[in-house]
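Below sits our specimen:

——
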Amino acid sequence: MRPILNWLHVLVLVLLAPGRILAAESDPHALDRQALIKLFREMEASINAQDVERMVAQMHPQATVTWLNGEVSRGHDEIRAYYHRMVKGEQRYLDRYLTTAKLGAPARFFGNGEIAVADGTMVDEFFPVARGPFSLNSNWTSTSAKINGQWQVVSMHLSSNVFTNSLLAEATQAIWYAGGGAAIGGLLLGWLLGRRRR
C-alpha cells in the first residue's frame, strides 16, 4: 500500500510542478505577493483582536502610520502610544475598532523587487466610549520592504472621504431634526401666545 501512496504523491507533484513553474514565470513576484497577503491578513486580524503588539510585529521598527484622524505615528513606541490612547487607556475614545480590508489591485514592486506598494479599501466599525457605534468606509495605502528576506510594513496611510461619510450624514440629519424641532416649537409658542392675548 505504501509504495502506491508514494507513487501517487510523486504523480501529484509532477502534475502540479508545471503550474507552479508557469505561475512563477508569468509573475516573478508570485511568492512575494503571497507573503504580502499573509502580512496584510495578519495586520487585519491583529486590529480586530485589539492586539497592538501583534500589529507592530508586522511593521519595521521605524514604520510610519498616518491614522484616520490625521495624526502621524513614527516607530513602534509612537504607534503603541497612539493605540493605547485611543483604544486602551482610561481616557480612551474607543472601546473597540474592527475592520474588514480589501486589496484594490495587485501590489506594485520597485527597485530590485524589495519595495512593494499596495492599496485598497476598508469597512471600519468604531465603538466609541461616549456614543453609539458607527461604520466608516475608508482607504489605505501601504509601502512594505523586504528586509533580511522578510516583508515588513514601513508606511501605512489611512484616509476617508471628508466630504461624504456616515458621520457627516448623521450630523446633517441631527441639524434637520434640530431645525424641525425648533420650527415646531416656535409655531407652538406663537399659538400659545396668540391664545393668551385673546
